[in-house]
Amino acid sequence: MIILVLFEIELLQLQLFTILIAWIYYAVMESSDEKASVGKKLLAIQVTDLKGNKLSLAKATIRYISKYASFCTLLIGFLMAAFTPRKQALHDIISGSLVVNQINSNNVGFDPKINY
Question: What is d(CA 102, CA 26) in angstroms, rounded to the nearest whole number?
Fold first, then answer.
């Protein structure tokens, strides 16, 4: 019984450590001058704010944390990107960010036709 409790504590610590490492990775990479993680760079996409600027570390952190909201809504938060005008998932809307093609990232600015 004691061994099982110790195993559960170690498992919880490992999960928390994994979440911490993932948060640091995504928040730092998406708030960097590259505006993208390694995978996003390979796909030639970037994460920007609504004006096309790089995210602050705080906004990148909010984006990472709010991905859990997208996940907890039975993935509907992710599917929202298919139906919103700027193709934003729930976590993008919460954090005020966009995922854009790197090639066209200079043309991201405010679009007055879209009701924010």
Answer: 17
Give the pLDDT confidence of 56-71 residue by residue, as tens digits: 999 999 999 999 999 9
How does residue 105 score in pLDDT terms, banded at 50, 70 and 90? low
Residue with tokens 């193709």: 87
Which among 61, 69, 71 is positioned nearest to 22, based on CA atoms?
Answer: 61
Cβ neighbours of residue 37 under 8 Å, at least 6 residues apart?
25, 26, 29, 30
CB of 55 closer than 8 Å to CB of 49: yes
- Token reading at 83: 């139906």
pLDDT at 112: 42
pTM: 0.81
Q: Do the Cβ atoms of 57 and 27 come closer than 8 Å? A: yes
Write down how long the chain is: 116
Residue type, 24: I
In angstroms, the Cα distances linking 94 to 19, 49, 56 are 20, 11, 14
